[in-house]
Amino acid sequence: MAPISTPQTPFGRVLTAMVTPLTADGALDLDGAQRLAAHLVDAGNDGLIINGTTGESPTTSNAEKADLVRAVLEAVGDRAHVVAGVGTNDTHHSIELARDAEKAGAHGLLTVTPYYNKPPQEGLLRHFTAIADSTELPVMLYDIPGRSGVPISTETIVRLAEHPRIVANKDAKGDLGRASWAITRSGLAWYSGDDMLNLPLLSVGAVGFVSVVSHVVTPELRAMLEAYNSGDVRKATEIHQKLLPVFTGMFRTQGVITTKAALALQGLPAGPLRLPLVELSAQETEQLKIDLAAGGVHL
């Protein structure tokens, strides 16, 4: 049985964009993925994003993606929303991935803006609509112009929100003004996709987070969210400020790289990275330790 969702929180409130654990020889580590998923849910996540950018989706195959969804569902699918990343810059390929995820049992889909080919807004509208039409699963858009090169305009978000299965947006645009208007006009469930802006986005209507730093600070993020929702803004702000070194340190370089390093330091499943991503240097690892310790993370 899938975890409970509401129109306001269709995928839960605190979701980790989970890394994909690999074995020493670079193969998919399904046992490690199950152990990591269970650890994250035990820590307080009520959702997991599988096969997102943090899951090294550009370098995993269709079959690996489906296997990973099935493994994580087996481990935690009755306790957390398991959302499959299916976005690519090829609409046909994204539809294939969406249907594979649905067959594997995913509870929902994450669809990133097509990257590199820089489609116009009409192209984005048709792309996301085609994916949403291809399965019966609820869809979370993912707006991250820093990676994709193209923002989803507020007008396009509003039009996409008319689709009955497009129910949420992961916002990594970094523009609180645009977020305010898009939340108000679209009615979509809004998730922060930028850890540094988790608290500010709550203040303009976000319902939760799709986080990377939650690999190491899920209890703190949940406490911040609960404090804010209960009206204790001062406490929420204190938690936000305490976590600033973590927000900074986990993104000094590419987030997958630092996350896998942090997990390894804690003895949790992670493994190597697939090229073109590479491991942290010894100096970078020492800096990460300093940053995490400054934010209260025990290694």
Automatic annotation (TrEMBL):
One of its GO terms (biological process) is diaminopimelate biosynthetic process. It catalyses: L-aspartate 4-semialdehyde + pyruvate = (2S,4S)-4-hydroxy-2,3,4,5-tetrahydrodipicolinate + H2O + H(+). It is found in: Cytoplasm. It holds the Pfam family DHDPS. Keywords: Amino-acid biosynthesis, Cytoplasm, Diaminopimelate biosynthesis, Lyase, Lysine biosynthesis, Schiff base. PROSITE patterns: DHDPS_1, DHDPS_2. Its main location: cytoplasm. Pyruvate binds at residues 54, 210. One of its GO terms (cellular component) is cytosol. The active site is at 142 (proton donor/acceptor), 170 (schiff-base intermediate with substrate). Pathway: Amino-acid biosynthesis; L-lysine biosynthesis via DAP pathway; (S)-tetrahydrodipicolinate from L-aspartate: step 3/4. The record marks 53, 116 as: Part of a proton relay during catalysis. Signal peptide: none annotated. InterPro entries: Aldolase_TIM, DapA, DapA-like, Schiff_base-form_aldolases_AS, Schiff_base-form_aldolases_CS. Its EC number is 4.3.3.7. HAMAP family: DapA. Belongs to the DapA family. Catalyzes the condensation of (S)-aspartate-beta-semialdehyde [(S)-ASA] and pyruvate to 4-hydroxy-tetrahydrodipicolinate (HTPA). Homotetramer; dimer of dimers. This is 4-hydroxy-tetrahydrodipicolinate synthase.
